Amino acid sequence: MAYDPSKDVELKAWRIPTGLQISVNQYNGGVPKLRIGPRFIPKAGGGETMTKAGGLTVEEVKVLAVFLPDVLKVMEG
User: Could you state, in order of their start, the residue ranges of all structural domains in the chain?
Assistant: First the structure.
């Protein structure tokens, strides 16, 4: 079965100050899952571009730890 983007639902998303986005997504009514990334980086001329999350800094891990209770609430329904 091929991936169908119309069945991928973002239940909630957060963007931390470094540009990293974390979200809880659910595919086709399945188990909600935590997604880390993408990372949004400002462009020189304005706007922003997306990249893969890659490695997380200590600061990003600390911020992620603050969001985990909210993430769990969304994932547990």
Answer: 5-76
